[in-house]
Write a structure and sequence with these properties.
The protein is built from 3 helices and 18 strands. It has a 9-stranded antiparallel β-sheet with strand order 5-4-8-9-10-7-6-18-11.
C-alpha cells in the first residue's frame, strides 16, 4: 500500500435545474463472513455494469508496465473516485480526498474501511486504502461568500512520508478555462468552464428517496470539449479538477441534465475539511 500511495502522489502532480450527484450503482459484495476484510480481499460480483467499469489513470504508475486505479468503494460497495492526497492542517494526518456522497453513501459510517479497486487477472482486486473519517455536504461560508461543497476525507492506512511541499494555489477559475479530470468511470476527459459561479439545486439526501432540495451556489459548470463524450458519468464523483497547468481548482460531484459536470471550487473544500493538498518533494 505504501508503494501505491507514493505512486499516486507522484503522478497526481497537483503540480439548470437540478444537479444530480454522480451516484454509481452499488457494487454487490459477498455475504458477510465471506469478506476477508483484514486481508483486503472482499469478493465482488462479476456482472458490474459498464457504467462503473474500472478505468486506468493516465501517468499513474505503481511499477513498470502497470497503471494505478483511482477507483474506490466505500464499505457498502458504493464506488467513486480517489481525488488526491492531503494532510490535515493541525495534526498533519495523512488523508485522501473524495466526495461526501461517495464516502458515506448507503449507511457507511465514520471509521468504516474504504477500498482501492483494481483489475486483476481473475477479476477485481481490493486493497484497503484507509478508513472514512469526516465529510461535509452542504453550504459553507468562505471569505464572506456561501458555497456548496460535497467533500470528504479518509485516513490513509499508510502515512505519507517526508516533509512534502504544499500544492500551489492559483488564480480563481473563470469561464473559458480548459480543465481536465481523471475519473474511475470515464478516465481522463477535457472540458471548458462555462460558468464559474453556477447556482443550482440538488437533493439534500442523494442516497435516499427524498424530494427535499437545497441550493448549490457558486459551483463550476464544465462542458466536455468533445460533443460525443460526456465530461463525467456515474463513478467519477470525487475526481480532482485541474487547469491547464495541472493545478487543482475543483472537486467533481455532480452532473446536469445536459451532461455537464458540476464541481465545488477547491478553496472552500480545503476550508471545510481543514486540509492542505499534498505534493511530493521534487
Amino acid at each position: 500500500l505504501r508503494e501505491v500511495i507514493q505512486a499516486f502522489a507522484r503522478a497526481s502532480h497537483l503540480t439548470f435545474l437540478l444537479v444530480r450527484p454522480i451516484v454509481a450503482s452499488k457494487l454487490q459484495l459477498a455475504p458477510e463472513g465471506a469478506m476477508a476484510l483484514a486481508e483486503g480481499t472482499p469478493q465482488i460480483a462479476d456482472d458490474i455494469g459498464n457504467n462503473i467499469a474500472l478505468r486506468r489513470v493516465r501517468r499513474c504508475k505503481t511499477r513498470k508496465g502497470s497503471e494505478m486505479s483511482v477507483r474506490i468503494a466505500n464499505s457498502r460497495g458504493i464506488p467513486g473516485t480517489l481525488g488526491c492526497l492531503a494532510r490535515t492542517v493541525h495534526q498533519r494526518r495523512s488523508v485522501f480526498l473524495t466526495s461526501c456522497h461517495v464516502m458515506f453513501a448507503a449507511g457507511a459510517a465514520r471509521h468504516d474501511p474504504v477500498w482501492l479497486v483494481r483489475d486483476g487477472a481473475g477479476g477485481h482486486d481490493f486493497q484497503r486504502l484507509g478508513r472514512a473519517w469526516q465529510g461535509k455536504r452542504g453550504i459553507v461560508n468562505h471569505r464572506g461568500s456561501d458555497y456548496f461543497v460535497d467533500c470528504a476525507i479518509g485516513a490513509l492506512d499508510v502515512p505519507l512520508t517526508g516533509e512534502a511541499a504544499l500544492a500551489r494555489y492559483v488564480a480563481p477559475p473563470k469561464p473559458g478555462d480548459l480543465v481536465t479530470k481523471t475519473g474511475a468511470a470515464t478516465g481522463r476527459t477535457t472540458g471548458v468552464i462555462i460558468d464559474s459561479s453556477y447556482c443550482g439545486t440538488t437533493d439534500s439526501h442523494p442516497a435516499a428517496n427524498r424530494s427535499v432540495r437545497e441550493p448549490a451556489p457558486r459551483q463550476l459548470l464544465i462542458r466536455s470539449i468533445d460533443p460525443r463524450r460526456p465530461f463525467a458519468l456515474e463513478g467519477d464523483s470525487g475526481a480532482l479538477i485541474s487547469n491547464e497547468d495541472d493545478a487543482p481548482i475543483g472537486l467533481l460531484w455532480g452532473t446536469t441534465v445536459a451532461a455537464e459536470g458540476v464541481a465545488c471550487p477547491i478553496d472552500p473544500v480545503l476550508h471545510a475539511l481543514n486540509i492542505q493538498l499534498y505534493e511530493p518533494p521534487a
